[in-house]
Amino acid sequence: MNVAKLSITGLTESAPNLGDTLDSDYTTFQQYLLLMGHCLKHGLRAKKTFLVIADDPIKTLQMEPHRPGIPCDMAVRGQDSSIKESKTHVSQKLQPETVEDPSILEAVDGLRYLKGIACGHLSDVNLAATPSPSSKEWYLKVSGLSKKHGPVFTVHLGPWRHVVVLVGHKAVQEALGEQAEGFSGRGILATLDQTFDGHGVFFANGERWKQLRKFTMLALRDLGMGRREGEELMQAEVQRLVEAFQGTEGRPFDPSLLLAQATSNIVCLLLFGLRFSYEDEEFQAVVRAAGGTLLGISSPWGQTYEMFSWFLQPLPGPHTQLLRHLGTLAAFTAQQVQQHRGNLDTSGPARDLVDAFLLKMAQEEQNPSTEFTEKNLLMTVTYLLFAGTMTVGATVRYALLLLLKYPEVQKKVREELTRELQAGQAPSLGDRARLPYTDAVLHEAQRLLALVPMGIPHVVTRTTQFRGYTLPQGTEIFPLLGSVLHDPEVFEQPGEFNPGRFLDAEGRFKKPEAFLPYSLGKRICLGEGLARAELFLFFTAILQAFSLDSPCPPDALSLQPAVSGLFNIPPAFQLQVRPADHHPAVQTR
Ligand code: HEM
Fold it and tell me: Do 69 and 204 fall within a single domain?
């Protein structure tokens, strides 16, 4: 067995100047660490900590109250029972005779942060510091481990969380694709679990998930997704966005908010039957809350929280801010649900997804084990609102950035659009087949960005054999989608922007099997159809209407994600749009 061993002992034992050896990246937690350091200094004395080592018994992080009675002391004590519970659970899973992991590794950064605190490293910390974009990328660290340990290995995220990591197309395909049922459980996202609590289609498991997934898919289809009505609805929003871009009259602007609002409006129409003006302040607050949530779960702090939520959750810190953002999204959803209740026509038809859910709830009123409950309604809709607001907008933004960076590609896209589309006609989904180069650029942008590089955690729903290993029921799985989209065995020089990899020798569009930004198997993104349609319509309409420019020379534009964690968040940039000399007035068909 290949075991990378590392143990850290004695938070209060001598570790001279350890703080000095911490990478500068760790200062990204300055604000949080200061708070934590304060708690440790005044309220807790850490006795000893151990990292889990492959076949050693799992050791506990023992905290001894130093000054009983202060809030963080009580909070840590309050965690005791859940710590014990999860310890037992994990110990059972990791019996060496049942799990023969190819390698067992530790993800240690979180403990290093804690160690830094205990060494008094924080005394001269700048409170105003915010998370820095140069923070180390969890995804790169974890995927990098595969160079030494192969495509399947276990990572210990803190003392009690053990995750089997799948790296590269083959491993992910074999697991999620070929053993779809066994790998179809949803794992933990510690940053969101407190809010969602296993409810709603994204976080549910078992029968609850099956029912919610089937219902949501059918409801979206009935509301016109994948049909002409749905396309018209999207085209109308695309046109509004084009008008808003026109309003900038060539001045540089950051397109993030407008793109997020436009894509959010599409999902708001489906969920609530409403579209909001881009100037609407409440709507802006909701969109910003979705952005704050994305940032919160993807930030370096969010990654540490995944490892140490059991310890960090009761303490003050950035997670309270994340909870506030989620609260804004959930409150908005609750308000919409309330309004729908007030004017629901029980004879149908449903005007939107909230109506459809309320009608289903009424139908199942007498069923004591129904999954169509208030909580599942709120949590399903809140997640859809979040996903619909943040994913497509971020991807279009990254595609636009690539076109600023590579003007020759922009030129070719615009030439193809001019050649293939009728003057004055808005692009429609039916045009996709005639626009292979444009489609290739869009796919390559999505591949390069790898919006969800870590994948979303899964669990195995039953004891599962995988590549000769026994994975007990409940084993957590991280299918690293970034490593699939950047698999060098499929995509030559995967870090380069090369739309040509999505074209065959005749210039026809081709999609490699490893193009899996939406994952695969039973949990494949439920919004894939919607996202694909939106991406195409927004991207083509913007390129048809404008030539894109940047106040910075292309060389000065960075393509590195601003934040890379659970999600890769594209960097901010300034865009200038000038009306294209063709297609002056665009009409929808
Ligand atoms: C570029 C856009 C998008 C990307 C790259 C994307 C990617 C993903 C990924 C990787 C997953 C996890 C799959 C897994 O567990 O293996 C997922 C799940 C999900 N996505 Fe998306 N997504 C996008 C847009 C959307 C949109 C627009 C919606 C809906 C409005 C949406 C709704 C969902 C839902 C509900 C799930 C959970 C499915 C389940 O657990 O059964 N996504 N998405």
Answer: no
* pLDDT tens per residue, range 110-153: 333 333 322 222 111 121 222 333 344 678 888 888 988 899 99
Looking at every residue in the chain, the average pLDDT score rounds to: 78
For residue 432, give its domain range. 200-579
Query: Going by CA atoms, what residue is nearest to atom 4 of ligand 1?
Result: 518
Positions of E strands within 350-484:
458-459, 464-466, 469-471, 476-480
Residue 282's alpha-carbon distances to 277, 288, 436, 571, in angstroms, are 10, 10, 39, 25
- Cβ(381) to ligand 1 under 6 A? no
pLDDT score recorded for residue 307: 72
Residue 562 has pLDDT above 80, yes or no: yes
Does the C-beta of 518 come closer than 6 Å to ligand 1? yes
Given this model, what pLDDT does residue 341 score?
95
Ligand 1: does its nearest atom lie under 6 Å from the Cβ of 525?
yes
Choose the final residue of a domain: 73, 99, 133.
73
Work out the angle at residue 559's Cα, subtended by the Cα atoms of residues 557 and 563, and round it to the nearest 5 degrees: 120
Domain boundary (73, 99, 119) is at 73
Question: Which residue CA neighbors atom 19 of ligand 1 most closely?
Answer: 525
DSSP lists the bridge partners of residue 46 as 63
Residue 415 domain-assigned (yes or no): yes
List, for residues 442-483, the tens digit of each pLDDT value.
999 999 999 999 999 999 999 999 999 999 999 999 999 999
Binding site: residue ranges?
525
Among 421, 410, 407, CA closest to 583: 421
Using CA positions, which residue lies closest to atom 28 of ligand 1?
527
Residues at the binding site for heme are: 525
Give the distance (Å) from ligand 1 centre to CA of residue 142. Answer: 22
On whether both 212 and 354 belong to a single domain, the answer is yes
Read off the pLDDT of residues 492-543 as tens digits, 9 standing for 90 and up: 999 999 999 999 999 999 999 999 999 999 999 999 999 999 999 999 999 9
Strand 161-167 relative to strand 103-107, pairing: unpaired
Q: What is the 519 CA–ligand 1 centroid distance (Å)?
A: 8
Residue at 143 is within a domain: no
Q: Could you tell me the pTM of the whole model?
A: 0.80
Residue 145 located in a structural domain:
no
CATH number at residue 380: 1.10.630.10
Residues whose CB falls within 8 Å of the CB of residue 365, separated by 6 or more in sequence, listed in order: none
**207 lies in the same domain as 69:** no
Q: Which of 298, 376, 518 to mutate to test the pocket of ligand 1 (most atoms within 8 A of CB)?
A: 518
Tell me, yes or no, whether 170 lies in a domain: no
Q: What pLDDT is stored for residue 492 in this prediction?
A: 97
